[in-house]
Amino acid sequence: MKFKEKHLLLSIFLLFWCFASCFEQTADITIPKGYDSNQISFKFPKNWEITQDYYTPVVHNLFVETAGDALVILQSYQSDLAEDLESFSKSFSASSRTDNPIGEASLGHKFEIIPKEAGYEWIREQFEISLLGVSVPHRRIYGTKKIADRQIFLIFQVATEDYSKAEPGFRLIRDTLRESKTN
Length: 183
Fold this sequence. Notes:
Blueprint: H1 3-21, E1 33-37, E2 40-44, E3 49-55, E4 59-65, E5 71-78, H2 85-98, E6 104-105, E7 110-117, E8 120-131, E9 134-147, E10 150-159, H3 163-176, E11 178-179
Antiparallel strand pairs: 1-2, 2-11, 3-4, 4-5, 5-10, 6-8, 7-8, 8-9, 9-10
């Protein structure tokens, strides 16, 4: 097979994969899964998966992913080492521009403080991810609160058009996140 043919087949495969994985399913919260480790516990939709869980006494980093492109990132730090929410959200946004594995993320062009809810402070960011010349509007919602001796940061990320499908899962995680009783 010639180089051009291989390149074309790879491009078609990548486009198919991207479009197939970009269809967000509604969060299934009927019988949620549970997480209880590393000083925290929470519930999450049964059609979502924990794909990364890294813990040290200084930092905890956990990813919960959907079958589409929505993502929940939980990061926690010792309270005395944690940034404030505004600094955290802007530095996270800047670093995600260079750490994006597929496509290119724009620098958040709109950050807004949203009302406190469920014991969290919140900031919403609007940005875009571009792939092959197509830009898809996204949002990240950053929340923070103190649990035990840790400052918890939640990051909810999803394509703007799919927010209503992921929002029940985001709310489930937010509302059930607490200090673990087993640790």
